[in-house]
Amino acid sequence: MDQRAELLFQGKRFRVVRSSQVAADGSLHDREIVLHPGAVVLLPLVTAESVCLIRNFRLAVGETLVELPAGTLEPGEDPAQTARRELAEETGFRAGQLEKLCEFYMSPGFLREPTHLYLATQLQPGPTARESGEEIENLVVSWSEAMRLVQSGAIRDAKTLAGLLYYERFRRQAPSAR
Questions:
Q1: What is the pTM of this model?
Q2: Residues 105-164: pLDDT tens digits?
Q3: Which among 31, 69, 81, 97 is least buried, having the fewest CB atoms inside 10 angstroms?
Q4: Cα angle at 145 between 54 and 42, to 5 degrees?
Q5: Are 41 and 119 in contact (CB under 8 A)?
Q6: In this structure, are 64 and 108 located in the same domain?
Q7: Residue 166 pLDDT > 60, yes or no?
Q8: Could you give the number of structural domains in the chain?
Q9: 15 and 87 fall within a common domain
Q10: Which of 134, 135, 137, 145 is catalytic?
Q11: What is the DSSP track for 87-136?
Q12: Is 135 a catalytic residue?
């Protein structure tokens, strides 16, 4: 990123900067970029055939979405540590095993938010520790129901679509890959 980035906004969880990009033709283009510390998204398998999704009210879109649990990395925090913390906070489950599946960017045209996808298995129930103001409810569904929710358009959250479809395509159908 351009060392001359101009800070436009500093929030609690992200910053917005204006940075310059020199195009192949030599022209200069300013871009506004959201800098986020990164996030984790969890695919918690309650059993081999069921997954814990959540219903989560999202003020930005003004509705409750069906999602995989997720959360923001704290400064200096290892993504695996964030994954364990967020799983317990949002769902109450503790993972006996945690496996990183992949890393991706949500919307790299304007947002730098590395997102780490983890598979959580050997789950043990426990109390949640949801943040004040979070409106979250666990939704444990069969794997086939999760795929129906994807196909019907009932799941519209990008990280959830990416996580479920990644697992369906590359992991679930290839148990020998583990």
A1: 0.91
A2: 999 999 999 999 999 999 999 999 988 888 999 999 999 999 999 999 999 999 999 999
A3: 97
A4: 40
A5: no
A6: yes
A7: yes
A8: 2
A9: no
A10: 134
A11: HHHHH--EEEEEEEEEEEES-TTTEE-EEEEEEEEEEE-----PPTT--E
A12: no
